[in-house]
Amino acid sequence: MAHSKGKFPLSAKIQAVRGMKDILPEQTPVWRYLEETVRGVLDAYGYWEIRLPIVESTELFKRSIGEVTDIVEKEMYTFQDGDESLTLRPEGTAGCVRAAIENGIIHNQVRKLWYQGPMFRHERPQKGRYRQFHQIGVEVFGLSGPDIDAELILLTARLWRQLGLLEHVQLQLNTLGSAEARSAYREKLVAYCRERFAELDEDSRRRLDSNPLRILDSKNPAMADLIQGAPQLLDHLDEPSREHFEQLTRLLEMGGVSYVINPRLVRGLDYYGRTVFEWVTDRLGAQGTVCAGGRYDGLVEHIGGRSTPAVGFAMGLERLVLLLTEGAVSRTELPLERYTPHAYFVAVGEAPERAALVLAERLRSSLPRLRLELNMGSGGFKAQIKRADKSGARFALVLGESELAEGQIGLKSLREEGDQRSFSEAELIDFLAGQIAS
Ligand code: ATP
Ligand code: MG
Fold this sequence. Notes:
This protein folds into two domains: 28-177 and 237-332, Bira Bifunctional Protein, Domain 2 (BirA Bifunctional Protein, domain 2); 340-437, Anticodon-binding domain (Rossmann fold), CATH 3.40.50. Helix content is 38%, strand content 19%.
């Protein structure tokens, strides 16, 4: 076979796909810290994980996200599989709703669900914007009141507080009203835009007939003036939606969460109605939204289920990691010790190496929470101590010929000054038990 004739000559390095990043071992502790903190908060509120496929029918996204949206128009990774058109999921709500309907788990019952994983969008890669990125999303089915909208927001506020990010994010809130209110408002907005047609950019002209609300979402600075002067949906709300929104803001005030109302917040997807919200930061440049969501009472029925109220949000993990490491908090302030070993076992000489392997197993059995890395590949004392230091461990355990002969294990602090101490196995277990507990 003539391999070398293709795009990649045999000698050429194969690189990652543009916009799809490796998350390296040096970075995964921050990811785990973030993910575990989120999971802890979700557990504390009684939410259940659902695991979903990464690939779904293209039709699912077209129908749920909407044909005239950035995602469906230009961002989906779609491919033909036999006679089926499939798409790598660009977001999680559609698949979650599909699974909930298909498995009959939202019929006549309340469900509070969350999921996590990669999403795919063919966008122009830049800081905080990738073609494969990761979200944790939450979806609640079967509740129509503002109390659940409030709970989702309180939950996220608690999460930011736990992560030390609360002072760096701002909650923006809006309501899109009922479908009827939106369509009445749409006519006013279209009339307004037609009067100022010359000021519309190309995207907005295209959206004027298909999805005019999205014009308000434009990030083009040339459109800012027109958007500023546009009629506001808030002034055209139906009474039940106004009531829902007022109750939500009251609950947030009672819960001590501050917000700003952003009348131009419309969200990019078709399925939202009533409550929409975003948590934004000014620390990440243009990619400032770290979490976004809202109510989508019409979607379940729209894709073939029984009418079911629903509300949810998704947070972008790359942006939160950026915020945690360079935006708001410095990486050194993060509690990442739990991802490094407590101790690194240095064993010098053939017999000590063999003894250390067995002793390390006994220590792990006695202390199930001990994180102990055993030196592999031999090496002199100095070289091993260097590795011990690099591992991030607090202590080096040391076993050489003399320790072995005396039935002792050396212990050297890697983070503080002090002489090497000497322990029997039982004393060492006691000492390490105390260290793990603190
Ligand atoms: P944006 O306006 O930044 O394009 P969006 O409205 O398209 O965001 P959503 O579909 O609401 O984003 O997704 C929820 C969250 O997922 C976003 O707030 C963001 O944190 C994250 N996100 C979305 N697209 C990307 C991407 N391409 N790369 C990294 N994170 C992303
Ligand atoms: Mg987008």
